[in-house]
Amino acid sequence: MEHINGTVVTEFILLGFSIRWELQIFFFVTFTLIYSATVVGNILIMVTVTFSSTLHSPMYFLLGNLSFLDMCLSTATTPKMIANLLTKYKTISLWGCMAQMFFMHFFGGAEMTLLIAMAFDRYVAICKPLHYRTIMNHRLLSGFVMLSWVIGFIHTTSQMILTVNLPFCDRNVIDNIFCDLPLVIKLACVETYTLELFVIADSGLLSFICFILLLFSYTVILVTVRKRSSAGLSKALSTLSAHIIVVTLFFGPCIFIYAWPFGRFASNKTLAVFYTVMTPLLNPIIYTLRNQKMQVAMRKLRFQYVSSSHNF
User: Fold this and answer.
1) How many beta carbons lie within 10 A of that of residue 109, not counting itself?
2) Average pLDDT over residues 174-190
3) Using CA atoms, how far apart are residues 177 and 77, in angstroms rounded to an integer?
4) Domains in the chain, CATH or no CATH each
């Protein structure tokens, strides 16, 4: 591939939300509150799962890991996005951009895999309850978590190795709120059609396959519950419908952005907000904070902390 002559790019300009200053202040306050709630909520879940003896079960072990990934995924992009809302020139260095994309796809790929493991956990718990503890043993759980991290690492490394060596010259404006592969690749000084196809095959297929597997597992669970009890079906449907909403909000933007040739969806800022800002907050709310057992464990830990503080 032959390079095009021009100025070598050392930083990118993020257009962000091209709106009035007053609205940018509004978004700054809103996203700061959402990000703070995401961090506090997910830390609270991790602490509760770790220190509450009643939550030492496979499901809560996986939920604790999901909370960690959610917090990391949001942190990869949101703080920089919030800071840029207060600046006139929204820039990010070349290597800062590469790091942002690396960690976003790292944690995103790991979370997709972990959601599959969580769906399998619910399948075993509902469809094979007598063998649940035997199947979902500590070795399998550790394997699921390690596999999610490995897949996330392979997923992001395979794309970033090719992206980091691209030459960038002259063009450095990204029409989005953070760096993402489709938009950054388009700015390269060389033909990137092959790399675009690879990203579609990698990110697009991973998102689509994981989404289909999750929907299939939820369907199998609902069919199994319906055969056993019509009363249990309404309860399972209530729980799983909330899960399906969150999964759709997480995977939907990924599929739209990566599953076909890069186009207008890649710069859709609404999809980007849902993927990196909203979903990491919705996951703890839907999967955990609505859980009655989790609420009881949190109250107990708070009571123990208040009691120990009074003793000093």
Assistant:
1) 29
2) 87
3) 9
4) 11-293 (1.20.1070.10)
Q: Which among 94, 82, 272, 90 is positioned nearest to 184, based on CA atoms? A: 94
Q: Are 288 and 44 within 8 A, CB to CB?
A: no
d(CA 154, CA 229): 42
What are the structure tokens assigned to 121, written together?
Answer: 């956990």
CA distances from 270 to 19, 179, 182, 243 (A): 14, 15, 16, 21
Q: Which residues pair with 14 in a beta bridge?
A: 174
Q: Any idea which residue has 């770790």 for tokens?
A: 50
Report the length, in residues, of the chain. 312
Nearest to 276 by CA among 52, 89, 120, 78: 78
| Cα 161 from Cα 293, distance rounded (Å) | 44
Q: How far is CA 34 from CA 149, 203, 253, 280, in A?
A: 26, 26, 19, 9
As a whole number of angstroms, the distance between CA 85 and CA 24 comes to: 6
Centre a 10 Å sphere on the Cβ of residue 214 and count the other Cβ atoms it contains.
Answer: 21
For the chain, give percent helix, strand, coil, nearest 5. 80, 5, 20
The half-sphere exposure of 74 on its side-chain side, counting CA atoms within 13 A, is 30
CA distance linking residue 91 with residue 83, whole number of Å: 10
Tokens of 18: 């091209």
Q: Measure the CA–CA gap between 91 and 169, rounded to whole angstroms.
A: 16
CB 204 within 8 A of CB 248: no
SS3 108: helix
Q: How many CB atoms lie within 10 A of CB 114?
A: 24
Residues in CB range of 30: below 8 A, 6 or more apart: none
Write the pLDDT tens digit of every residue in 240-283: 777 777 788 788 878 877 766 655 555 577 777 887 888 888 87
Instruction: For residues 96-109, give the mean pLDDT.
Output: 93
Sequence-separated (6 or more) residues with CB below 8 Å from residue 197 = none
Q: What is the pLDDT of residues 283-302, one digit of tens each?
A: 778 766 667 788 888 888 87
